[in-house]
Amino acid sequence: xxxxxxxxxxxxxxxxxxxxxxxxxxxxxxxxxxxxxxxxxxxxxxxxxxxxxxxxxxxxxxxxxxxxxxxxxxxxxxxxxxxxxxxxxxxxxxxxxxxxxxxxxxxxxxxxxxxxxxxxxxxxxxxxxxxxxxxxxxxxxxxxxxxxxxxxxxxxxxxxxxxxxxxxxxxxxxxxxxxxxxxxxxxxxxxxxxxxxxxxxxxxxxxxxxxxxxxxxxxxxxxxxxxxxxxxxxxxxxxxxxxxxxxxxxxxxxxxxxxxxxxxxxxxxxxxxxxxxxxxxxxxxxxxxxxxxxxxxxxxxxxxxxxxxxxxxxxxxxxxxxxxxxxxxxxxxxxxxxxxxxxxxxxxxxxxxxxxxxxxxxxxxxxxxxxxxxxxxxxxxxxxxxxxxxxxxxxxxxxxxxxxxxxxxxxxxxxxxxxxxxxxxxxxxxxxxxxxxxxxxxxxxxxxxxxxxxxxxxxxxxxxxxxxxxxxxxxxxxxxxxxxxxxxxxxxxxxx
Amino acid sequence: xxxxxxxxxxxxxxxxxxxxxxxxxxxxxxxxxxxxxxxxxxxxxxxxxxxxxxxxxxxxxxxxxxxxxxxxxxxxxxxxxxxxxxxxxxxxxxxxxxxxxxxxxxxxxxxxxxxxxxxxxxxxx
Lengths: 496, 125
Hints:
- The structure holds two protein chains of two kinds.
- By secondary structure, chain A is of the alpha/beta class.
- Helices cover about 35% and strands about 10% of the residues of chain A.
- In chain A, strand 8 (about 310-315) and strand 9 form a beta hairpin.
- In chain A, helix 2 (about 95-105) runs antiparallel to helix 9, helix 4 (about 120-140) runs parallel beside helix 9 (about 340-375) and helix 5 (about 150-165) crosses helix 6.
- The longest helix of chain A is centred in the C-terminal third of the chain and has 37 residues, at about 340-375.
- Chain B has a single domain (about 5-125), classed as CATH 2.40.50.100.
- In chain B, strands 1-2-3-9-8-5 form a six-stranded antiparallel sheet. In chain B, strands 4-6-7 form a three-stranded antiparallel sheet.
- The interface of A and B includes residues 408, 424, 482 and 483 of A.
């Protein structure tokens, strides 16, 4: 590691066993007050056949044991509060702490979905305002906040497309999906009862328009397109594609996973999209994965509004908000209540804090950061498609593969340099793909450190490929045997 | 170099015309990386040329398997359940996938010779 300011050090890490292996009999983390009612044998109250003497393997721990256990585990973690997390397609941007502060306000945090509407007017106003903001940002007419994740939003959108065609008498049979799509796209199509038809990319890494003209017939219900696509490339023919689909009675679904590239610059609704989902946990800084539930609202044009999941948030003439269940053409409920409310609060907080100008700057800087990385690494790593990049850049391992160093090796070596690896092996149309998405929240210093690490690894791959091929070296557990882990997984811990 | 006695599809499956055995090519297993699971059809299933007859899952991705010609499945390689790595280690031997009764031998005309397939792979790279 050649950097003057070495990023990784050798701070100790405490090895930790499973919580089941800790503790000792009788240890407690609580102290109950003296019993002030007559003591009763539980077997006289509950059928003894339903009782057991103890719970096998249940750890007995004190408060300090528990706190230290989880604190130690947390030090093994790499997370967005620790450093750059360039996982392409995931938009791992920093999540501002003000979001958490606002989501914890009593009126939001303690609201119950069964409370009468008049007692949760503020919560409903948050949902309605977020719907309005998302419609404005995406250039659409109506939004449902129900879907609990991106793929759930896809399913919701495709079911609405089916309901739309059904209302015209024929649901049609096929949905076109480009070969660069997220894997969830064909899955959503299949679950909705449609057949997937693959659309190849051309040399630009964009949908092949000429091919498309030949395959759009009366059986095609829609195209499901990601824009910018998974190569980080803007589908330049998108307006023409939408026009073609519409002229043949088909609709256009956009996977909005990459919306972070275009806020305030262009709007899906303006280039012909009929329905898209928006990942609040990507573009709008709500937590990812283990940090909180996802949220994938669906935004639609007027023609699809009648089919939105119910209830929607309505507003009476007097100004009061209410849940509108009277939606005769709705596809039904997609989730209990009206989606992940806590995420709606955080996303709205982020949108209002930034405002229209701020969101535009978010997208501009996200694109600038990705292009800065592209420019700095273009000689060291191959770029399979030379179309201009937006918010992410896909490299391939073609140069390093000559020394038998592959994308997975490069990714693992990056861990030694103190970074979370980028996405590898996706999109599938790029062999040995390395997909880097820095997002806008990273400083130039942080990105420069990443670039320096990537350049150092390219040099190692050339001069000392073994060190890359056997990485990581600095982690608690070295290289794991991924194939055996998948072939013969051990899924359960058992006491020895 | 691919074995001369086999025919090849653009989707990287091979067919042995003598006994109707089908597998994936060395190039295909190399692109996939370490194979961890192979899903095969049932004996008696009938497919048209180009149909999906199964999936192969590697540490990198899940890919579909396509019929090089039409036919009925008469045997499947049960050994792949416990040893999917055979697909990597021996794609033209122990890593075979299914044996079919070819419906129409004329369809093999669409497939490539070893030489044509090697050229096809070289051009893609």
